[in-house]
C-alpha cells in the first residue's frame, strides 16, 4: 500500500472519530486518532501476554497492577509481588524517560521515534521469549515500552483515546449525552477488548511469541506511518510557493 493510499484510508477514519467542526473546520490531529486506536489494540495484546503467559501481571494497565500488588501482599500465591513491582517500576521509568524528552521536543515530533523504540523493546521481549529467558525480563521490557507509549499519548492529549485507561472512558460513555465523543469512546473500548481477545487466543493456543510478533508488526507500522506523515507535512511546509 502506498503512502498516498494509506493516508487516503486513515484520514476518513480520523474524520469519523473527530467530525469537522462548525464551518467545516478540520480536526487538528491529522491521522493520529486511528493510530492511537491501533495502539489501544496493542495494549490489549501485550496485557494478554503478560497476564496469561507470564506472572499474572499487567504491563499496560497499571491500575490493575496496584490492585494485584495488594492481593499479592495479602498472600495470594497466584500473584507475584516481584512481578507487580517490576512492572510498576519499569512503566514509571519509561514514562519518566519520555517525560524528560518532551521538555525539549514537542509531543507530535516525539511520537514516531518513541513508537519505534517501543517496537524495539517489544522485539527484545519477543527474542527473550523465543530464547526461553526468564519471565521477569520480558515483563520489564514490555512495561518499559508501555510507559513510553503512555507518556507520549498523555502529552498528545487526544480526547478519549488514552490507549490504556478505560475507567473514565466508560464513565463518560454512560454519563454524558450521545455525541461524536461517544463514537470515540466505543471505538476505544472495542479496540482494547479486541486486542485482549486476539492476544488471549494467540497466547493460549499458540504461545506468547505470536501475540508479541503481532504487537511488533503493529508498532512498526504505526511508527513508519507517523514518520511518513510527518515527512510529508514537513515537505509541504518547506515547499516554495509558485508565483502568480
Give a short overview.
This protein has one domain: Growth Hormone, Chain: A, CATH 1.20.1250. The chain is built from nine helices and no strands.
Description:
There is one protein chain. The chain has 244 residues and is mainly alpha-helical. The chain has a single domain, classed as Growth Hormone, Chain: A, CATH 1.20.1250. Helix content is 76%, strand content 0%. Helix 1 (3-17) crosses helix 2, helix 2 (32-53) packs antiparallel against helix 6 and helix 2 (32-53) runs parallel beside helix 8. The longest helix is centred in the last third of the chain and has 31 residues, at 208-238. It is globular and about 60 Å long. Residues 1-6 have low confidence and may be disordered.
What is the CATH architecture descriptor? Answer: Up-down Bundle
Beta-strand content estimate: under 5%
Structural class: mainly alpha
Mean pLDDT: 87
Give the % helix.
over 70%
DSSP summary, beta strand count: 0
Query: What name does the CATH topology carry?
Result: Growth Hormone, Chain: A
Query: How far apart, in Å, are the first and last alpha carbons?
Result: 35 Å
Amino acid at each position: 500500500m502506498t503512502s498516498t493510499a494509506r493516508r487516503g484510508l486513515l484520514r476518513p477514519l480520523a474524520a469519523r472519530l473527530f467530525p469537522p467542526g462548525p464551518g467545516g473546520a478540520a480536526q487538528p490531529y491529522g491521522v493520529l486518532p486511528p493510530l492511537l486506536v491501533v495502539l489501544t489494540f496493542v495494549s490489549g495484546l501485550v496485557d494478554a501476554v503478560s497476564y496469561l503467559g507470564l506472572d499474572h501481571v499487567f504491563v499496560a494497565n497499571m491500575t490493575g497492577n496496584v490492585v494485584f500488588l495488594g492481593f499479592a501482599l495479602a498472600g495470594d500465591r497466584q500473584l507475584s509481588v516481584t512481578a507487580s513491582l517490576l512492572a510498576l517500576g519499569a512503566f514509571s521509568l519509561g514514562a519518566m524517560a519520555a517525560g524528560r524528552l518532551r521538555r525539549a521536543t514537542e509531543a507530535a515530533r516525539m511520537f514516531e521515534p518513541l513508537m519505534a523504540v517501543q517496537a524495539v523493546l517489544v522485539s527484545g521481549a519477543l527474542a527473550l521469549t523465543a530464547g526461553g529467558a526468564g519471565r521477569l525480563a520480558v515483563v520489564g521490557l514490555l512495561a518499559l515500552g508501555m510507559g513510553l507509549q503512555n507518556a507520549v499519548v498523555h502529552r498528545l492529549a487526544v480526547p478519549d483515546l488514552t490507549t490504556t485507561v478505560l475507567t473514565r472512558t466508560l464513565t463518560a460513555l454512560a454519563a454524558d449525552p450521545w455525541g461524536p465523543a461517544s463514537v470515540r469512546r466505543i471505538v476505544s473500548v472495542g479496540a482494547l477488548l479486541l486486542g485482549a481477545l486476539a492476544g488471549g487466543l494467540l497466547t493460549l493456543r499458540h504461545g506468547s511469541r505470536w501475540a508479541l510478533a503481532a504487537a511488533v508488526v503493529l508498532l512498526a507500522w504505526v511508527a513508519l506511518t507517523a514518520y511518513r506523515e510527518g515527512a510529508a507535512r514537513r515537505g509541504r511546509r518547506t515547499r516554495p510557493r509558485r508565483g502568480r
